[in-house]
Amino acid sequence: MSSPQTHIPPPVEAEVPRRPARGQLADGREILYFFDAPLDHGDFEPPGDPRHLPSRPPAAELRRDPLTGEWVSFAAHRQTRTHLPPADECPLCPSGDHRATEIPAGDYDVVVFENRFPSFGPGQRDQVLGDGLGDTFPAHGRCEVIAFGAVHGDSFGDLPLERARTVVDAWAQRTAELSVLPGVEQVFAFENRGAQIGVTLHHPHGQIYSYPYVTPRTLTQLEQARTHRARTGRNLMQDVLDFELAAVTRIVERSEHFTVFVPFAARMPIEVHVVPHRHVADLAGLTAAERADLAEVYLRLIRGVDALYPTPTPYIAAWFQAPVHHPDAGELRLHLQLTSPRRAEDKLKYLAGSEAAMGAFIGDVTPESTAARLRAALRLVKGSPA
């Protein structure tokens, strides 16, 4: 028997998040400053960038895999990107008297800037991507870096709640602005944490990609949602949320606007989804109250994940947002998927033969046990419900 549908509130109009102060780096890239208390920084003038930088690289090249239909971007200039520099050479720390970094200011709250080594772009324009064997196309789009604060040794879990709210507002503002750029089909905000999953900078930061196509994982979700709608007449994510709420055992936390749960068929040892109660397409569509609630929920979740083990846990926090122009985009609901390959204190899950080659996952840890451990960890985190 299917569980009863929860009440779906009527649509509401999103409230515009705080506006950034805009500046420019030495090679013409845009940089944006967001403040925890924006009214106190109305006279902030972004400082100039004194560096002499080479010209920006040409756009990467898109090639289509004819066996899967998936696009691959070849950005050879990324081979020279900064890789795990010492703290005194970090490009995300504030600039000082004796060293200029990617952020010209001497201090900052949250900063977003165009990536010097982009996977997509620089430059955005409308284009038609063909399917001819051997065709190549410019990988137009935009890649941004979002620095969560000026302190090099912090992680997201170390941030105060006010700063977490600034990050959420920055995600929403960038999603809104990037979604209307020519040729952009999907906006993806994410954070990679930990060298075990390929992080190249230890400074607390995330990234925002603007793709010139709809990503494969999104297309799969769209097809599942379309099929579910045709079969049941209902929205897939709403039914998933109702199913998890009825099951109870995988629920980690529930706030006024969001539910946190380990999914029924989690593929990674640690996998947590955060789903809004209201059907909303993207971060830009959240109200001010929802963004404030999300900042608190997300910060507690990161602190809970960090409380699972004595040492920091590597993770990928990925915001799934509806594509911009796809005809079935209305079926997709904003949600977070946080995953980690850490299956024990001293063990990682590696994607080997079955997972890497076939995409056929074998679970090492049951979702129910992961949810129970996370609930216990959250009870240790200040500000979390008992």
Low-confidence stretches: 1-10
Task: Provide the number of structural domains.
Answer: 2
Radius of gyration: 21 Å
- Using the coordinates shown, work out and report the CATH topology of the largest domain: HIT family, subunit A
Class inferred from helices and paired strands = alpha+beta
* Major sheet attributes: 11 strands, antiparallel
CATH architectural group of the largest domain: 2-Layer Sandwich
Enumerate the strands of the largest sheet in spatial order, edge to edge or round the barrel. 1-2-5-7-9-8-13-14-12-11-10
Could you name the CATH homologous superfamily of the largest domain?
HIT-like
Number of strands: 16
* The top level CATH class name of the largest domain: Alpha Beta
Mean pLDDT: 92
Order of helices and strands: EEEEEEEHEEHHEEEHEEEEHH
Overall 3D shape: globular
**Beta strand %:** 15-25%
Distance between the termini: 31 Å
Which percent range fits the helix content? 10-25%
Number of helices: 6
